[in-house]
DHA2 family efflux MFS transporter permease subunit
Amino acid sequence: MVETNTVQKKPPYGMIAILFIGAFVAILNETLLNVALPSIMVEFDVNATAVQWLSTGYMLINGILIPASAFFIQRFKNKSLFITAMGLFTLGTILASISPTFGVLLFARMIQASGSAIMMPLLMNVMLTAFPIEKRGTAMGTFGLVMIVAPAIGPTLSGWIVEHYSWRTLFELVIPIAILTLVLAIFKLKNVTPQRDIKLDVFSIILSSFGFGGLLYGFSSAGDKGWDHPLVYGTIIVGVISLVTLIFRQLKMEDPMLQFRIFKYPMFALSSAISVIISMAMFSGMILVPIYIQTIRGISPIDSGLLMLPGALIMGIMSPITGRLFDKYGAKILAITGLTIMIITTYFFSRLDMQISYFSIMLIFSIRAFGMSMVMMPVMTNGLNQLPMKDNPHGTAMNNTLQQVSGAIGAALLITVMNSRTEARAEELTASAMASMDLNGTMSEQAMAQMQSQIMNEAMLSGINLSFLVSTLIIVLALVLAFFIKRVDTSSGIVKEEPVIETKKTAVSTN
C-alpha cells in the first residue's frame, strides 16, 4: 500500500517566515541564559545547584511536552497552536525580565519552555506539509538555520550582553521580537496542517513525562552528582520502566499519543539511529572545548564563545546549500562525507596540548562544524520522507525527543569519561611528584600549590583528550550506518513503505 503526500500548491513562505522567527527566538533562549547563571546566583543569593534548574527545568519541560506535540499538532489547527505557544513564550519572557525573586524567575522559565516545546515540531510539520518531497531538502536545509545557529550563537551573544549589561537584558531583547511574532501570527497565519478528531490519553502523558523526564534528569545530573547518586540512578530506572510501559501501551492503541510503529520504516529507523549517535557525539565539542579553553588555558568566556562563532556561521551558511545538494544527490554521499570530516577533526581534538594556538582550535572547530552541517538535516529529512503524511507529526516529535534524550546521554557519558580519566591521571602524577619531592627535599607552599595546579591541568587535559577519542569512535559507528542509507523514491512524490532499490533510470519499490 502506498500513500500520497498532499502538499500546498504554493508554499506559504510568509507564514513559514513567521514560524521561523518564533522558533529561532525560542531555541536561542534555551542556551542564552547559561553564561548569565553566575550573575543570577549573586543577585538572588542562590547556590549553583539551585540556579542550574533554570536550564535543567527548561530542558525537562521540553522533554515532557515534545512527545505530546504529535497529539497537539493532529488535534488542533496550526494557527491556534502556534499563537498559544508563542503567547506562553512571550508571557514567560516578560515575567522573567521583571522577576523579583528566584522562584518567580524559575516559574517564568517553565512557562517559556511550555511554549517553545511545541514550536520546533510544529514548524517541521508545516514545512513537510507545504513542500513536495523532491524540494524538502532545500526547505529543511533552511530550517537548519533555526536548529543549528540559534543554540550555537546563544553563549557568545549572552556572554557579551552579561559583560556589559544586566542579565535581565537577555529577556528584554527577546520581548519585542516575541510580541511582533505573536501579532504577525494572529493576522497572517493560515491553517495548512490536517486535523484528526483524536482523544488524549492522560495515562500516556503521565508515562511520557516520567519516562523522558526521568531519563533527561538522570543523565543530565550524572556528570555533576555521579552515577552512584540515588537521584541519578533512581530517576533513570523510573524513566526506563515508564518508557517501556509507554511503548507497550502505544503499540496497543488505535490512536496512540506517540506512534512507535513508524520505526517499521527502515530509512526512518536508520536516520533516527544516526541522528541519536551524532547528537551524543556533538556535545563533545559544545562541552569539552569550552572546558579546555576556559579552565585549562584560562581564556575568558567571551573569547570561548567567539571561538565557536565561525563554526556556527559556517553551519548556518551551509545548511541551505546542503539542503539543495540533498535534493539533487540524496543523503548518503553527504552523510559519508560529513561524518568523515567529523571523525578526522574530532580525532585532532583528542590530541590537544598546552601549546596549540587559539586560532588552530577555532579552525578545527569550524571544519568540524562544516562536516556536521552535511549530516544532520539530510539524514533526518531522508527518514521523514519515507513516512506517510499522517505520521509526520509522530516522526517530528520522535526526532526532537530522541535528540533531547541522546544529547543528555552523550553529555553524561563524555563528562564521566573525562572525570574518570582526570582522577586516575591526577593520582599518577601526584604519586610521581611526591616520589620526586622525597628525593629532592621539601618544597615551599607556593611551589606546592603551583605543582598541584599544574597536575590538575595536565590530568584534566588527559581526560578531555580521552573523551574526544571516545567521541571519535562514536562517530565512526554513525559512518558505518551511513553506508546503508538508501534514497527514498521522490520521482512521483510518493513515499514507499519499503526500501527503494534504484535501477539504471527508475526507482522500483520492493513492495
